[in-house]
Amino acid sequence: MSASSQRHLIDELRERIRRIERRPARRDGFLPSGRPEVDALLPGGGFPKGALAHLAGGPASGKTLLALSALARAAAEGGLAAFVDGRGELYPPAAEAVGLDLGRLLVVRPGGAPSGGARGGPARGGPERGAGRGEEALAGLWAAEALLGSGAFAAVAVDVPLRGLAPARAEAMLRRLAAAAERGGAVGLWLGAPAPGCRVPAAVRLELPSPATASEGSGCPLPEGEGCCRLFPLGVRKGSAGGGRAA
Amino acid sequence: MPPEPFAGARVPRAAPRVLALAVPDLALQRALRSRPGAPPLVLCEEGRVVQASDAARAAGVRPGDSLVQARAACAGLEACPLDRAADRKALQALAEAMLSLAPAVEVGEEALLLDASAAAVVVEPSPLVVSVESECPLPEGEGCPSLLDREARLAGRALELARRLGYQARAAVADGKGPARALARSGAERVLVVPPGETARALSTLPLEALELPAAAAARLAAVGIHGVGALQALPPETLVHRFGLPGAEAARLAQGEDGRPLVPYLPETLPEESWDCDAAVESVEPLLFGLRRLAERVAARLAGRGLGAARLRLRLALDPRGEERLLFPLARPSSSAAGWLLLLRERLGEVRLGAPVTGLSLAAVEVAEAPPEQLAIGDRPEVARALEAVLSRLAARLGEAALFAAEPVDRHRPEAAYGAVSFRPHGKHGAGGSRCPSPSGRGHSDSWETARGEGVRPSATPDCIRPTRLLDPPRPVVAEGEGGRLTALRVEGRAFPVLYLAGPERLAGEWWSERFDRDYYRVRLKGLGDAWVYRDGQDGRLYLHGLFD
Questions:
Q1: Closest chain B residue to A19, measured at CA
Q2: B-chain residues near A105 (CB < 8 A)
Q3: What is each CA distance from B419 to A91, A119, B397, B415, B518, in whole angstroms?
Q4: Residue A110 near residue A133, CB atoms below 8 Å
Q5: What is the 3-state secondary structure (H, E, C) of B10-28?
Q6: How far apart are CA B317 and CA B361, in angstroms?
């Protein structure tokens, strides 16, 4: 038996076992970001599936817009998208504006319902009002891990401030996120700023400088992602959960 | 011409096909299913043994013995009083689950009667070996064998469902509910399917008690030597009417398999709750999960029979020596999947610290909603649907239902009210995405273009419906700094950010009838921060940072 037919047979057997165990299909490959100029910089032409990607940047650098574009692409391909909104700041109309079908986007706010939402009131069983920042961060990270590892979501954006967590604890939690992404085959997009001394175990890291820095003094009227941001891919290690080596 | 067998046994067309499910020794089975490791057990009434478990029978205890005799025969015998009301409830719970197999279920004495017309849609093969008396007069290929086979499968599924709920039963399918019940209660086979029109022949081998005639009529028949249904069938019906009156006529019809009475459907009125008693006080989670699995399957089966799904479950843990712990489990969507519930229950039980050992469990569906079977479209993957349901339930249980939502656009100009939170339903009414701005007919109004034209100002370079990706709640007050009437910087939370670029305004105002707002929004590019969404409040004249174009 040739090597290729042997590999084909093994893949087929794996697929049969997966069906017997009723596990969700492992998604290999890459998820395009929805922005050609970003995809051109990313190895594989998109964010790796089954791994964590780190979108680093300031408070108005365009990282959320880029994450929403990727989620829109995942939803357009028939998958489900989730946004763990630990800050409670995500504005869904902007997500709709980038073409994301809001019906396929699950927003998770560990702190409770949106203030302007139709379903107000405190979250039943959620973190208490007096709960510390660390508790809230842990709840957000737990939710992100559950979503990434579930196999039900194609892409999950995570924006959870790590305030109140010790760096070692935070890094351990981030490693769990990466492992969950690998287990569930989802694209994990980490938007939060890492705590000092804490490394994000991401396969890809994109650094988005503030557009005000990139086009300082130019009076550029373009929105982000249309030429204003610089991108720095640091490398991809397929199937890795432990952080890729910078390239 | 030879005489036609059972010439008087023509079945009226109205006689329905009925599946009777008999649960022998129901009270004993009910007592044993909640206490699987119970010692020799008898159920007694007025000091007499009514039903005895196998262990008690092996020790020589028989129904009819006095309780004193029984205790003398079997050391360690446990006696429970017969509770007919509880038995009736148990049978009703079983009927509730059977509603998933038949359109109508009647609750009888130690038996359920199912409308067997549902057999036409039963396609799954039965796991049981089915005994079918196939003397069908129709040749093969004319539908009759197929009908019998389907009825046998329906009976098999009913028995399997009863077994999952903890009951051993016998099933019979025949014309009319009286004959079907008699065959199920007195027949030798576990599953018996009688072809249409041959019910009288099947009944002929049964003893007279199977017909459950009035005691006086049965005694008088026995006095004249009639002990079996076959002997009763041989008597001319008019003779029986003449001798025994109305009960005689009833007996004659029943013996001939004529029973056109319709089923009286059972309509459940309460939400399902199932209990399980521990043999001994339990301190670890694993034994609890063992019992919980059974309870979940039973509650789920009962809900599924009614086409309902649980939206909220309540688990009660009875503690030793007294007290209880109540846990509520909100579910992301109404579900009757016991496997999905167990994931949630297992996770939560692992986190709970119990103050005392547990002596019993009780699981109830306290909130239910209609849960029709999910229609899978081409390309849908059921494993993903299951995974989604499981993760949503986990999140809802840990974070609360309000922490999970899907956003829905709302036709309002007030930015913080321009969307609402709805339950996440990926296959719901949400259509395709796309940019959507509030329509002019919506509440409030957007004056950006009108203002621009009216004041002779060039419209903003960016479309007026571009919104920030992040909205700050509440808006942060900012202080403007300028030179010579020109804005140079904005001070946000004590830190000054030089202004590089400014576009706008976009005027949003309205809702004078409730909480009036009047804002001029600007998109401002701030050095060191990025693009921000700032508005000047028309009521107090101050500037606020409302969002970030992150």
A1: B383
A2: 406-407
A3: 9, 11, 25, 8, 19
A4: no
A5: CCCCCCCEEEEEECCCHHH
A6: 5
- With a cut of 60, say whether residue B446 has pLDDT above it: no
* ipTM field: 0.75
A/B interface, count of CB pairs below 8 Å? 252
Collect all residues of chain B within an 8 Å Cβ-Cβ radius of residue A61.
Answer: 530, 550
Q: Does A64 touch chain B (CB under 8 A)?
A: yes
- What does the pLDDT average to over B400-427? 85
Q: Do B403 and A212 touch (CB under 8 A)?
A: no
Assign 3-class secondary structure to A60-76.
ECCHHHHHHHHHHHHHH
pLDDT at B501: 82
Q: Which of residues 154-193 of A touch B (CB under 8 A)?
A: none
> How far is the alpha carbon of A140 from chain B, nearest alpha carbon, in Å?
9
A58 reaches B (C-beta below 8 A): yes
Residue of A nearest to B429 (CA): A103
To the question of pTM greater than 0.90 for the whole model, the response is: no
Name the residue among B48, B332, B9, B428 with its Cα closest to residue A146: B332
Chain A residues closer than 8 Å to B529 by CB = 58-60, 210, 212
The DSSP annotation for B432-500 comes to --------TTSBSEE-HHHHHHHTTPPPPSS-TT---SEEEEEEEEEEEEEETTEEEEEEETTEEEEEE
d(CA B486, CA A128): 46
Contact A216 B434 (CB under 8 A): no
> How many other C-beta atoms lie within 10 A of the C-beta of residue B398?
20
pLDDT in tens, A126-145: 344 344 667 788 889 999 99
Contact B21, B169 (CB under 8 A): yes
Positive or negative: CA dihedral B237, B242, B245, B246: positive
- Give the least confident one: A233-247, B223-237, B468-482: A233-247
pLDDT single digits (tens) A16-74: 776 666 555 555 688 998 888 888 888 888 899 988 999 988 888 889 999 999 999 99
Q: What is the mean pLDDT of residues B208-212?
A: 82
pLDDT of A15 over the 80 cut: no
Residue type, A93: P
Q: Which among B348, B284, B360 is positioned nearest to B319, based on CA atoms?
A: B360
Q: Let me know: does A241 contact A176? Beta carbons within 8 Å.
A: no
B211, B232, B180: which is closest to B6 by C-alpha? B232
Contacts for B141-149: CB closer than 8 Å, 24+ residues apart: B144/B195, B144/B196, B147/B119, B147/B120, B148/B193, B148/B195
Q: For chain B, positions 308-347, list CB contacts with chain A under 8 A.
A: 328, 330
Residues in a beta bridge with B365? B313
Task: Give me the pLDDT at residue B260, please.
Answer: 82
Mean pLDDT of chain A: 75
Given an 8 Å threshold on Cβ–Cβ distance, is A216 in contact with B500? yes
Contact A95 B390 (CB under 8 A): no
